[in-house]
Amino acid sequence: MILYFGNVKKVNGKLQGEAISLKMYEIYDVHMHHYIGFSRLHNIITTFTFFWKYRKGTTLVHIASYSTLAFYYALYVAILCKLFNKKYITVVHGGDFPNRLNKSKFLCSFFFNSAVKIITPSNFLKHHLDLHGFKSVCIPNFIPIEQFNFKERSNLQPKILWVRTFHEIYNTRMAARAIQHLVSKYPNIKLLMVGREEDQELTLFKECVHELKLSDHIEIAGQLTRQEWVNRSTEYDIFISTTTIDNTPMSVIEAMALGLPVISTNVGGVPYIMNSGEDGILVENNDDLAMANAIEQLLMNPELVKKITKNGRIKAEKFSWEAVKPDWISVLKYARGIAGKK
């Protein structure tokens, strides 16, 4: 039995966690526990109760670790593993984790040195873990590639898609400013913003749109299911990402899979998954003029679009479950062997 601790939620009465935790169900007996969105006391009590309930049958613990305050929850689970003599692996998430490694050196040393295996979804995080002496293995996150039909795009229209969360770190107002640079030359330009709200960023974005007089050019769709925004993506020709901190943004990979040429800020792990001019275009962080110029470059250059979208789809296929499954089976087999189960 494997215990999974991480970002789990209930959808229609069923538990859903990160993709790998669900895929492990196909191979092993997995029990999942959620921690995000509750008080600290609630997390401490329910996590201990959950651990105690399944302690006897557990052969391995899987801990999802994040760079935010959730790191301390992962640390708490690691301490429980020590107390109950259980081996654990951890999957490291979060584009800001390099800062966590610098700020919490002692705690990170205990957490990572106690793990049987450290897995990271990007070479960006692997690089920073290696710098601190924590040996890790990179296994990319994966997407259900079969759900993303490639649409060939040649003569692009100025119809732009943005998919993420309305949060300060994703710099939504950069997208609006980029559109503002282009609106006089492309009066039919459209931008669709898809994502849920996590802080005051949505309010600030709406104020920005109003100030720039872009209400006729920008639609805020709010939170959509994956299938809903994938369906709407057929109406758009360019995908932009304006993030200031990131690791491996799966919306970028998904856009590549759909045949959308991607323009992204050159931050965090993004340049580790995108080669500018080959399978996407990178611009400097918070440079809305550079973003606007890149959009126009794609609108004016169908041959570049053809190259970028073809290579982008090839890149996205490397993030399928079939591509990463052998690596996960190898890691879990090794970890369970260390834990004493053949």
Gross CATH architecture of the largest domain: 3-Layer(aba) Sandwich
CATH class of the largest domain: Alpha Beta
Could you describe the largest sheet, including whether it forms a barrel? 6 strands, parallel
Taking pLDDT < 50 over at least 5 consecutive residues as the criterion, the unreliable ranges are 11-16
CATH superfamily of the largest domain: Glycogen Phosphorylase B
Radius of gyration: 21 Å
- Look up the CATH topology of the largest domain: Rossmann fold
Binned, the helix content reads: 40-55%
Strand content is 15-25%
Shape: elongated
Q: Which structural class matches the secondary elements?
A: alpha/beta
Write up what this structure looks like.
The radius of gyration is 21 Å and the shape is elongated. The chain folds into two domains: 2-142 and 320-338, Rossmann fold, CATH 3.40.50; 145-317, Rossmann fold. With 342 residues, it is α/β, with parallel strands linked by helices. It contains 14 helices and 14 strands. The strands form three sheets. A six-stranded parallel sheet has the order 4-1-5-6-7-8, sandwiched between helices. The chain has a six-stranded parallel sheet with strand order 11-10-9-12-13-14, sandwiched between helices.
